[in-house]
Amino acid sequence: MTEAIAKGEEVLLRQACDKFLAVYSRKAVAAAAAPGRVNLIGEHVDYCEGFVLPVALPFLTVVVGAYNNTDYCHVLSILPNGEEAKAIFPATTASALKPGEPAWANYVKGVVANFPDKVRGFDVVIVSDVPMGSGVSSSASLEVAFFTFLEALTGTRVELVKKAQLCQKAEHEFPGMPCGIMDQFIVTMGKKDHALLIDCRSLESTHIPMDSTEAVILVVNSNVKHQLTGSEYPQRRAQCQEAANKLKIPSLRSANIQDLVGKRS
């Protein structure tokens, strides 16, 4: 997996750097990348404080850029189908950020707004081959890649668990998606030939070896597109929390058979 990621990153990085030079007439000075993910065990479990077992994928989001000596951030995103999307918003040194249009830029703005330091104006190119709307965490890949880019640009480093939490917070606040911690966690901490067992209550994690000579993970494209902010995902999370509230427990992770039998109607 790592070799595939390395080769893919090299191609995407060159594409992003070439595009940056062509658009902004100078070279990028900072770059970062983050993968997509697939989950092996534990669906709709992370926001219930349960256990999940995701693995990083050899698909990447690459971000390159540089300061532009203005009070504005210019973002150019090259989509997997080759289309381009642009967004401009104020630097956090000049103004507080708020969600807005275009909707996709809220993922970037949320990360900038939640970055520990104020960020000056910058120019950025984003290139990704993570399939969008396919359940492989293109949004978390973008968030973590952009956060890591800001670390490289500013010199400010953030501990990995905290980084995942800040990216999750960004998605809650700006796109308005009440996601659990799993996606940002695995995208931040994925490791070669390993799945990642995450305790979503304590945020403790263990890398689980997966011998690539004996196991193959087959990810199938169902061609069913989804958009989490407009899907039933928020409803499912609310229903799980409603059930926990009726059981008078903080989350369904804490439920036992006695709790369920006691509330049987």
Structural class: alpha+beta
Helix content: 25-40%
- What is the CATH topology assignment? Ribosomal Protein S5, domain 2
Q: What radius of gyration results from the CA coordinates? A: 19 Å
CATH class: Alpha Beta
Residue runs with pLDDT of under 50 for 5 or more positions: 1-5
**Secondary structure tally: strands:** 7
CATH architecture: 2-Layer Sandwich
End-to-end gap: 50 Å
Query: Helix and strand succession?
Result: HEEEEHEHHHEEHH
| Domain tally | 1
Strand coverage percent = 15-25%
Total helical segments: 7
Q: Provide the residue-averaged pLDDT.
A: 91
Shape: globular
Tell me about the biggest sheet?
7 strands, mixed
